[in-house]
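WARN retry 2 of 3 for item q-0093 after timeout on previous attempt; input resubmitted unchanged.
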Amino acid sequence: MTAPPTPARQRIPAVVWVLVSAAFVIALGYGLVAPVLPAFARSFHVSITAATMVVSAFALMRLAFAPATGPLVQRLGERPVYLAGLLIVAASTLACAFAQGYWQLLVLRALGGVGSVMFTVSAMSLLIRISPPEIRGRVSGVYSSSFVLGSIIGPLIGGGLVGLGLRAPFVVYAAALLVATAVVWLALRNSAVVGEVVEHQAGTALREALRDGAYRAALVTAVVYGWLYAMRVSLLPLFFTEVLHSTPRMAGFALAAYAAGDVLVMIPAGRLSDRFGRRPFLILGMVVLGASTAALALTDSVGAALAVTAVAGMGTGLVAPVIQATVADVLYGGRGGTALSTYQMSQDGGTIAGPVIAGVIADRFGFGPAFVLTAVLAAIVAALWTGTRETRGREPLTTVDA
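OK item q-0093 returned
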């Protein structure tokens, strides 16, 4: 019997590269404003808690609007929802640059969360629909890595823009989003693949998806992954400054080490999951994340903590592209749908709850217990996938009788 061709021989569709380029610009711009946003809020003479609420408001609006996004995508299609989402974030960001008070900034930044979830869900829906099944993991790896690279480069550029004032990064980000919107519109306006009407236009219903063990496992994974991702930018820098008595600059190096480990394995993990299945990489990634997070609680030197942090980033890199490919395996065949928006809500929920719960534990009991709890959650997800069937090569739910 002739061996099937390896997934690497199939080319990634041009439409995917358009979305990858736009994702890089989006992440780059987010990295521009993220470091200055709390300081900008504090410039209105509010408390630290109030300043952090500006960050949380964006995530809360993503979570609140996610249920409406799936039906919106299935009714209007991915392209208009994606472009509208970019324009909403661009308008919100530009308006933030001219905010004259704290409450104006809070409301305007929160409105950006609506646009953010619109382009996130529509982009994922489109990737699920147009990615060739044989290279789904590879596509997810390339797409995910574009976000990570943008988030690495963005703060570096943003730091240079701070010299122009706290409002300058918002103007630059808004302009970048307008350029990205124009490029995506021009590149996709005549695309038959993007504009075609698929047979299962309504997408996958949540009730149908919840019958599938792989989808349920993906929801749990999304919550824990969101928790872990948020802890990276909230608790990790504080651990370096308050426990290891290091400098904020070294805390920045820790975030860079995490991101470097992340991007190093993303594309290889996605590509290999197309050949060997999703479950091995999800299990291994969560084991690596759990072990490295627990080990972080035992470190007492900056060098060891940096090394452990880089390993934790590799764990994230194993999980991120493969869980996206897994969701595509399960839901492939439809456009949008409540099952897809619920998956996004799960990740946003973990992103919001993780820092709050872990932060309370760190305040009362120390960073060690907070890290151990996170490690336990990762171990639970790994155990969950050991009892869940493989999704690569299986029939999607939209073609399975309920």
